[in-house]
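Quick one: structure for this chain?
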Amino acid sequence: TTLCKDLLMRPGGWLEQFENGFILVFAGNRHCAQEYERMGVPGKYVHSSLRTDILEEWWNHCNDLRDKGKVPPKTLMIFDDVLVTASSKKYKQTRTSQEFYLNKIWSEGRHQEISALLSVQSMTVALPFVRCSDCFVCAPASLYAHQDIKMLTENYCPCDRKTALALSEKFGAHEFMCCDF
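Got it. Here's what it folds into:
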């Protein structure tokens, strides 16, 4: 959320860049959602859970605009700690990696003028979406196990495997690693 705050509020930041468009926030809980409201994102565009009904509605709205020969407004969607790795029938929750419109945002969103930011605590949760990203920023704390490091070096570093492994060994000494795809 601190990184998002800087990106939203700095001069020339997202709040200014999307003045003629929309910023939609899907936060993992009410406390996190309130942070975005304090940053200046209008409350009606801030949600305290992943709302796939809104994603579907917005996608259909963009299609309707395109059918009329209009370009959809620029939209930034921020997904902050909303991904779920396990399904639960009891809580009517499916794995977010299987959510149709969430996957559509990452794979085809640029065609609808949609930019998306995903903030998660564990890289494992975000893996299905990282492949379709333009840029990936990772903190060392998000790598919990050797499997995460292996996944990162073999699949997501935009360089050869030997260089990626050398980078991962030095990674812990830094705040973030940025991979530009």
